[in-house]
Amino acid sequence: MNLEGLRVMGIDPGLTRCGLSVVQAGRGRAIIPVSVGVVRTPSGHELTERLLRLSKAAQEWMDDYNPDVVAIERVFERGNVSTVIQTAHAVGVLMLAAAERNVPVYSYTPSEVKKAISGNGRADKKQMTAMITRILGLSEAPKPADAADALALAVCHCWRAPALARTQQQGAWPSS
Amino acid sequence: MNLEGLRVMGIDPGLTRCGLSVVQAGRGRAIIPVSVGVVRTPSGHELTERLLRLSKAAQEWMDDYNPDVVAIERVFERGNVSTVIQTAHAVGVLMLAAAERNVPVYSYTPSEVKKAISGNGRADKKQMTAMITRILGLSEAPKPADAADALALAVCHCWRAPALARTQQQGAWPSS
After folding, report:
1. B-chain residues within 8 Å CB-CB of A175?
2. Which residues of B touch A79 (CB under 8 A)?
3. Contact B92/A51, CB-based, under 8 Å?
4. Does the residue B173 lie in any domain?
5. Residue of chain B whose Cα is closest to the Cα of A106
6. How far is B132 from chain A (nearest CA, A)?
7. Range of the domain at A10
8. Catalytic annotation on B12?
9. Least CB-CB distance to B176: which of A46, A55, A77?
10. Assigned domain for B146 exists
11. Cα-flanking dihedrals φ and ψ of residue B22, to 5°?
12. Mean pLDDT along residues A46-60
């Protein structure tokens, strides 16, 4: 399966900081970075307003970069429950933006991303950032961590997509 | 504060079943039922597709009934974590639909709703349904429970709104 030219948008979801990235698959395992950034919504603002801001930003990215697919981090059922709920609200509006554009969404757990990028499902942030910087041939490490994570998600999808394509039925709606 | 004519949309959020209702405040504590229903999305379908369906349904309701305010159940940090996450995804797209229309959203906990409707924060489903049926002068009990809960949320807001208005600054974005 030739993925050359496939545009993947990587999303590290969050309400306070949401990492967004776009990469394009090149020849073989090569990946070209297209854009990376972080959307922030002020924690003092109301939830509805923050969701609206995040949704608008994600929609602008999708309209500007026209990704073929979105790779997003699966909400992790661990840690502070109210943070998990807040992140899940954010994921709802982010997935909706993709669904409204008929862009398929794939979800990956943090350890799946770490394993795909570094070979180690328990790699730390420093290792992950170093790997992403090297893989994409960046002149400096992407900051903050949310930006690096968004790139890692997009790269993870590029490298896993061929295997997914082999195991999935043609025409099936992708897993989320 | 005279609320007469205020249209409140009540939402009992969920992905498998989402209760939607619209009521209108009448004179004094009187409340007129306008509409009630349940949106279902098939559990076998992908999350993105389910969120899109739910969003479209909620948007249609908002466009059809033009509520002045939305009252939604706050996601409860208890029970099965994956159900909590799924409900939080749903709440994200429901709140977004309201925010996109500039309709303020108020969240209430289950016990706040129970207390407002029945005087007892621990009332059971049967009591709540009986109270809602009586308050709204319905000829039969609303079914399923999600429909009754959506009506209860809307009534709860109607009865709490005068107190909220007294304690809130004019022009402040409502709490969510």
Report:
1. 46
2. none
3. yes
4. no
5. B48
6. 28
7. 6-163
8. yes
9. A46
10. yes
11. -135, 130
12. 98
- For the beta carbon of residue A138, count every other beta carbon within 10 angstroms: 15
The answer to whether the annotation marks B12 as part of a ligand binding site is: yes
- CA pair distance B157, B67, nearest whole angstrom: 12
**Quick one: chain B helix, strand, coil %, rounded to 5?**
45, 20, 35
* Closest alpha carbon to B26 in B50, B4, B45, B46: B4
| Average pLDDT over all residues of chain A | 92
Q: Is residue B169 part of a domain?
A: no
Residue pointed to by tokens 């994956």: B82
Phi and psi at B90, nearest 5°, equal -60, -45
Position B1 in a domain: no
pLDDT digit string (tens) for A86-116? 999 999 999 999 999 999 999 999 999 999 9
B146 is catalytic: yes
Place of tokens 């992790």: A76
Read off the DSSP letter of residue A64. Answer: H
Question: DSSP of B42-63, one letter per residue?
Answer: -TTS-HHHHHHHHHHHHHHHHH
CATH of residue A44: 3.30.420.10
For chain A, the domain total comes to 1
Nearest Cβ partner for A92 among B46, B49, B89: B89
Residue B172 has pLDDT above 70, yes or no: no
Which residues have a Cβ under 8 Å from the Cβ of B40 and sit 6 or more positions away? B16, B17, B18
